[in-house]
Write a structure and sequence with these properties.
The chain is of the alpha/beta class. It folds into two domains: 170 residues, Rossmann fold (3-Layer(aba) Sandwich); 185 residues, Up-down Bundle (Dehydroquinate synthase-like, alpha domain), CATH 1.20.1090. Helices cover 44% and strands 19% of the residues. Strands 1-2-9-6-5-3-4 form a seven-stranded mixed beta sheet, sandwiched between helices. A two-stranded antiparallel sheet has the order 7-8. A two-stranded antiparallel ribbon has the order 10-11. A hairpin with a 2-residue loop joins strand 7 and strand 8. Helix 4 runs parallel beside helix 5. The chain is globular.
């Protein structure tokens, strides 16, 4: 069994297929002699590269593979250039396809290359992590990091399909798997309080990677994101709610050093920070703030910068926030919760309050 969700963006619309043993290429059935470049990282290629290459070859496609190192460091201009070189060697033309096989780093990197090579060629997302399945593979955000901050170069560029095989989650480490669950919890806070409660009540099934439960959970997250993206594809308004927790998260990732924390780990701590600010600024219930913190802990996620084991200074964190894309003139903007399932975006908070919440004094 599998679930299909449509991302309704008129001529740029596409389907997301979620289930066990889902394979890519369902949107290009019947096409022959199309050149395909599979982009993966060193970990995922070893696990799944042969399998997916053989499947695409069986569909009559010409397949070549390109592999980047696993980790956030691959989201860099140097690897964009390397993938352009691989695309040229593969003879890709405007009818060709780039397949992003991996997690969020691979999807962001390969998607950006697809968006810019020959001014844009087709690409397919094949997410192999929880985070990529519920978040980064859906919605068309692609990008790379600069030394000054995360995702500062990129493009909005939609895939032609997303093929999410839940079976790939079995090879994730506990840490990688938990990292993706932070984004799942996020959807409960920003949009669907019932989803939040469902996760609370089924933590064991989530951690046990119960496929029957995960299929519905992942599908619900994709439904939410598809609806948000349908309304605001290029983040000129409501799509900003998807950044709940991310203002602090991106600062933590930069200050700690990219790769020290996984993205979802930083998002978890960032959500708790945003929730605490929300209690003071938006009347978010303190009990619900505690529920969020406890749920994240139960899923094996950090809830504050202290969990990194490194003492961070507010000055460094605040400087990192100055380059955040969501800010204006160096002033960060936050997504804050009014209640579970309802948030507001574009919030500017007094500097003194931010510092005191970070220090645990409010």
């Amino acid at each position: 069994m599998s679930k299909k969700i449509h991302v309704d963006l008129a001529e740029r619309g596409y389907d997301i297929l979620i289930g066990r043993d889902v394979r890519p290429g369902f949107s290009i059935t019947g096409e022959k002699d199309v050149r395909v470049l599979i982009v993966s990282d060193s970990t995922v290629d070893r696990l799944y590269g042969d399998r997916y290459a053989e499947f695409l070859l069986s569909k009559g496609l010409e397949v070549r593979r390109a592999v980047v190192p696993a980790g956030e460091e691959s989201k860099a201009l140097s690897y964009v250039q390397k993938l352009y070189d691989e695309a040229m060697k593969a003879g890709l033309d405007r009818h060709s396809i780039i397949v992003a096989l991996g997690g969020g780093v691979v999807g962001d990197l390969a998607g950006f290359v697809a968006a810019t090579f020959l001014r844009g060629i087709r690409f397919i997302q094949v997410p192999t992590t929880m985070l990529a399945m519920v978040d980064s593979s859906v919605g068309g955000k692609t990008g790379i990091n600069l030394p000054q901050g995360k995702n500062l170069v990129g493009a909005f560029y939609q895939p032609v399909e997303v093929a999410a095989d839940l079976a790939t989650l079995t090879t994730l480490s506990s840490r990688e798997y938990a990292s993706g669950l932070a984004e799942v919890v996020k959807y409960g806070v920003i949009w669907d309080a019932r989803l939040f409660s469902l996760i609370e009540d089924n933590v064991r099934r989530v951690l046990d990677r119960d496929f029957d439960f995960l299929e519905g959970m992942v599908a619900r997250c994709c439904e939410i994101k598809a609806e948000v993206v349908r309304v605001d594809e290029k983040e000129t308004g409501v799509r900003a709610i998807l950044n709940f927790g991310h203002t602090m998260a991106h600062a933590l990732e930069k200050v700690l050093g990219y790769g020290k924390w996984l993205h979802g780990e930083a998002v978890a701590a960032g959500m708790v920070f945003a929730a605490r600010v929300s209690v003071l600024e938006k009347g978010f219930a303190g009990d619900d703030c505690d529920r969020l913190e406890n749920l994240l802990k139960n899923l094996g996620l950090p809830v504050s910068d202290a969990d990194s084991g490194i003492k961070l200074s507010w000055t460094d964190i605040r400087d990192a926030m100055s380059s955040d894309k969501k800010g204006k003139s160096g002033i960060p903007r936050f997504v804050l919760a009014e209640k579970l399932g309802s948030v507001v975006f574009g919030c500017q908070i007094a500097e003194e309050m931010l510092e005191k919440v970070f220090a645990g004094k409010l």
